[in-house]
Amino acid sequence: MKKFLITIVVFLVLFLAFDRLFLFFVYNSPSKEVDKRLELVLNGKINKDIIVLGSSKGARDIIAAQLEKETSHTAFNLSYPGSDVQFHEFLLRALIKFNKKPKIVMLTVDNPIEVLPDSLITFRLDRLYPLIKYDYVNQELVKRNEKNEILSKLFILHRLNKGNFDVRQKKFTAMDTLFADGSMPISFQKENEDWNEVVNNTTYPQQKESKVKLQCLQKIIAACKQNNIKLILVSPPMFKGANPIFKKRILEIAGNNTSFYEFDTQNQLYKDKNYFFDLNHLNKKGATIFTDEIATYLKNTKL
Amino acid sequence: MVFNSLVFFGFFLVFFTLYWSLSKQKVLFQNLFLLAGSYVFYAWTDWRFLFLLIGVSLLNFYLGLKISYETNEKYRKYYVYIGLLQGVGVLFYFKYFNFFITSFKQSLAYFGMNVNVGTLDIIVPLGISFFTFRTISYLLDVDKGKIKASTDLVIFCNYVSFFPTLLSGPIDKGREFIPQLEKQRTFDYENAIDGLKQILWGLFKKLVIADNCAIVVNQIFASYDTMPSSSLWLGMFFYSIQIYADFSGYSDMAIGVSKLLGFKVTKNFDYPFFAQSIPEYWRKWHISLTSWLTEYIFTPLSIFFRDYDKMGLILAIVINFVICGIWHGANWTYVLFGLIHGLYFIPSIIKGTINKKKKTDLTKALPSFMEFVNMISTFVPVMFTFVLFKSETVTQAFQYYGKMFTKTILSAPASFPLYIAGLVGLFILLEWTGRSQDYAMRKTFSKFPMVFQMLFYFALLATIFVFSAKEQQFIYFQF
What is the DSSP string of chain A? Predict the structure, then answer.
């Protein structure tokens, strides 16, 4: 038994030493990232008046620099393509914790999948893993059952993900070119997009709503209220128009203290495909028009 | 409490230390402590079922004694029947009651008759199929005189409830396991290290291979109706690997934990996907269940049907495998799974090769052409039946099969993380090179210097840490 215990202890000590070698990957990962926005948030470097949150709609359809120019409020875009409301809630929490609280948060909603289970939008874990050197990020992974708290404290290896081993410098792609203001507008149009696709805007499966996503949206609303942040839910233009039942549902969830801004449905430009990247996203020309529309809304409502 | 959890780690650390500190005490203390540990382990999941486990143990202990000492043959048989009735009855109530009610209602509805019989809200106790099979085999063995009835209640309860194998087997027979409980266990360094290695290998199989395959499998099976056929083939392949890695991984952990406690538990898998024929596959897959069924179902049936020559054998095999299928769960998918496997045996019964073992050289790096052909022609039909295992209904399974043969079979499959294919490739390679051993990495690198061996284990642990996917429940827990 004694020999067995000694073997185990020696093995564990040597393994712990081996494990510490992987610290290199923990500290090397952030430097390889091209999108530094989350790290800036964690380091308290995003101190802006207006923050745009959302998925690709937020990232592509709203240009923060233009908003800043037109409203004389500082603005930054913290939208991540493919992200869901759970991720937005995490971002807002981190933003409030480490930075000066913004005055306005504009959350673009994905019509109609904002609170529906849909694999198109997820919690962007891939944005968290490169930043596991930050305890806040690790705690979030633990909270989401991605990692075990005790193991992640004991072993560096448990903190890591396969992506951390990719030591190549990441590069922007044509789709994900990030501007200094955090926005990601696209200047071209999607190839082979079916502009005549029939979109059903007459139903909304409320019974399929995800409880977790609903709770996250409610948490965002509550956090903004608690921190005196004006929350505006924004519904950006869609080539085939927005689902009115979803809008009604979002208004119901949002309650009286949250504003809802829907794109100008009368604007004929939003019926012209030349202003769109695809059916659901504007291109840079369209984004400029929509951002101008929002800026006017902000000025008119004196926010 | 599952093996791959920190709760189990904590539990086992304390248990292991105290268990071996009692090693110089009487065997009774060791057994009492082992039983207490098993009950804590079982109650951790749902304490209410502990009473069922204890009740079943007490009743079967009593019946065993009665069968053993009863001189009147008629009464003796009564005790056997009571035991069988209890075992089958408990299984029927917890696992199959709702299934039979629903099937009965559906059958009547087919003929236009609607009956208003409700189903029950029943939670299936974990491990029920495993401990019930243990008690049934014990009573039958006592009846046949293959084993003497245990006169020690603590030993018998330990046999029924031995925690490493309680939830998902292997299903040890009393005649193999009870003698181990009767003897004082002494700590053996080599055995304990071997146990740890096997646990590590089991963890790798479950957390790295099975749980990562599940990512692809769940995605494909969730939207098989929109996926190209090529993806469905991939889904079927990955599910076969997943279920093997999941269950054999659990068995490895169970056997490894048993070794740490000084027990030798029945081997449950012997590289089934390298089998050369269907009969050989079943000698290598879930060995403890197959041998149980062979002894207590197939053999009596084949004796019963012996006058019908090969037809009798076919009938015995088919019934045996239908029971095997239904053992897995109350669903027609499992019945069909069993039936198909039974039918797969027909060619070897007709050719008379059912018990023939094809000689293979386990030291060869590569299989011969014929070995390779045999392997593939065994694996592919087996793989097809796993679609039934994964599907919720027979209709869904057949829809899946139907979609597998469309013209999209030649198109590129929907994208999936390629690293998973890499992990599966590595796994198959390690299994192939280690196929002469009890478990693949038992002696891997044993000829190398200590430093390299250490590095190999470090790498395996590192892979477990880094590549562990989000935890999935063990598939066989539902059985």
Answer: -HHHHHHHHHHHHHHHHHHHTTHHHHHHHHHH-S--HHHHHHTT----SEEEE-SHHHHHH--HHHHHHHHSS-EEE---TTB-HHHHHHHHHHHHHHSPPPSEEEEE--TTTTTS--TTSB--HHHHGGGTTSHHHHHHHHHTTSS-HHHHHH-HHHH--GGGG--SPP---STTPPPTTS----SS--TT--TT-----S---GGG--HHHHHHHHHHHHHHHHTT-EEEEEE---TT---HHHHHHHHHHH-TTSEEEE--TT-GGGG-GGGBSSSS-B-HHHHHHHHHHHHHHHHHTT-
The count of other CB atoms within 10 Å of the CB of residue B395 is 11
The model's pTM is 0.86
Residues A249-256, mean pLDDT to the nearest whole number: 90
The tokens of B147 are what?
């084993």
Lowest mean pLDDT among A271-275, B102-106, B458-462: B102-106
Alpha carbon distance A157, B463 (integer Å):
9
Q: Over the stretch B241-265, which tens digit does the pLDDT of each residue have?
A: 999 999 999 999 999 999 999 999 9
pLDDT of residue B99: 81
Instruction: Give B54's pLDDT tier (boundaries 50, 70, 90).
Output: very high
Tell me the mean pLDDT in the region A205-227: 95
Residue B479's pLDDT band (boundaries 50, 70, 90)?
low
- Would you state the pLDDT for residue A257? 78
Residues of B in Cβ contact (< 8 Å) with A157: 461-462, 465-466
Report the distance separating Cα B332 and Cα B388, nearest Å.
9
**How many angstroms separate the CA atoms of B323 and B326, rounded?**
5
Which of B 70-99 lie inside 8 A of A, CB atoms? none
Closest CB to A157: pick one of B6, B187, B466: B466
CA distance B289 to A138: 43
Do A295 and A70 touch, CB atoms closer than 8 A? yes
DSSP letter at B224 equals T
The residue in chain B having the minimum alpha-carbon distance to the alpha carbon of residue A148 is B6
Q: Which of A1, A7, A162 sits opposite B419 (nearest CB)?
A: A162
8 Å CB contact of A15 and B20 = no
φ/ψ (deg, to 5) at A235: -110, 100
Amino acid at A166: D
Q: Which residues are within 8 A (CB) of B4 and not within 5 positions of it... i.e. 6 or more apart?
A: B203, B206, B207, B253, B471
| A119 CB neighbour count, 10 Å cutoff | 11
- Cα angle for residues B15, B288, B290 (degrees, 5° grid): 160
Q: Which residues pair with A53 in a beta bridge?
A: A107
B5 CA: distance to closest CA in chain A (Å): 10
pLDDT tens-digit map of A6-25:
999 999 999 999 999 999 99
| SS3 state of residue B460 | helix
